[in-house]
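This entry is set out below.
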Amino acid sequence: MDNNTDAYVEMLPCGHREALGQYFTPTYIAEFMADWVVGKRPKTILDPAVGNNIFFRTIGKIYNECNMIGYESDEHIFRFFSLGQFNIFLADFLTSSWDNQYDAIIANPPFSKFQKIKDRAELIDLCFKHTNIRLAGLSNYCLYFFLKCLYQLKDGGRLAFIMPYDFLDGPQGNTIKHFLLYHNFEISIHFLKYENIFSDDIITTAAIFLIEKSTSHRITFLEYYSERDFRINHPTNSRTLSCIEVESLDKWSNFSFFTKIPQNVVPYHTYLTAKRGIATGCNEFFLLCDEAIKNYHIPYECIKYCISSSSFYKTPFLTNETIIAQEKKNKLLILNAQNSNLAKDYIAWGVSQGYNQRYLTANRKIWYELGVQTPPQILMACTTRNKINFIFNESDCLYMTSYHGLYVKKPWLQYIKVLFCFMQTCFAQNLLRLQSRDIGHGLIKMQPNDLNSALVINVEVLERNDIKIIEEIFDEAHNNKFFSEQEILKLEMIFKMYLY
């Protein structure tokens, strides 16, 4: 950032800037965006959220044959950066006229979650009135700016936006994605998948959207895993897809895993149901160490072993012996009306600490009752940086929110070895990645519904002899407590015959 911006950041508390969604664009990104929007020598350029005026200052250095118009609604930043001396209005762009059109638009709009948007219902109605697009109530503030700017872009005009891209991977972005696909836009989306893009490391995902209003209908995706790669224009992955291909891509940030959908696949929910783990709302109380058990005389009938962290277990097979041998904090307090009197001293201590007033505990009928959970046949880690890990569960332990439990439906239990073996293959991993959510810093996350809708091999098409071979590979891996590279390769050769 420049000296003036540094001074502004030091002057105002982070809470003020965060409440208004102010995150300042790095100079190298502003230069990249500015170079692109002036490429067709526009006569008018709009910045709907001027902030520290970095875009107009950058454009002024390379192109001065246009009229630059801006809006800024925060009086603090408007006065600090003396924006009144430019053609910049101290006003809310979202409530300004929709009639004006511009040759070019460039913006780093406010990034605010839906809870902080004032007059949200009115803004949704206003956008719908002009575009016939009804934004989801959970939409980030930046999407209102994005939609209005797309509407006010002239034919042949160019738009450059930098903003979080999580809306491309969730249902709240479906209306915007549909709008992009079925209007005359040529689009390139540059996913910046590295850390510390902004000085405030709160925003964990960001992308630059370059959009030209033309007769073309295609989208180019690019992703960068370091600032250096972005600066030298060296994307780690890039793909240009037709609108029809993109339409089949549920989560756009997973474009690098896009492949033609293989044959002989069905949704996971055909065979199993994915369920979330236990959210205690207060791990300090419910996860027990041996010292607490001893000091408060908690009987073992009130305790169940559990998996509290996905980092504790690296092998694909889990037994009670494995759990007991784990020295980490893995004992969960399970109380109900029948046994709570046996831990009354510990419950009283929890109340004295205010644990009963936490959000989840305060909203339970009885604050210390976690409900009933049965052990699943398979466990899946919710978040990962690399391979999505599955565990074949032969224990009677419970699981917490770092895992989802996969409960195989009774008619398909005979195929559980086949399903688990498929989960170890690259084919399963790529199909799962298409449904995963990028949460920043190289992490991906899968919700239960993401897995339920992901695709898996149709076990009914497998020949009996191949099923026998797959089950033999499973049994060998089970004996050895892991799958060897040779075993996974053999599995992939078998499944490939049915998929492609």
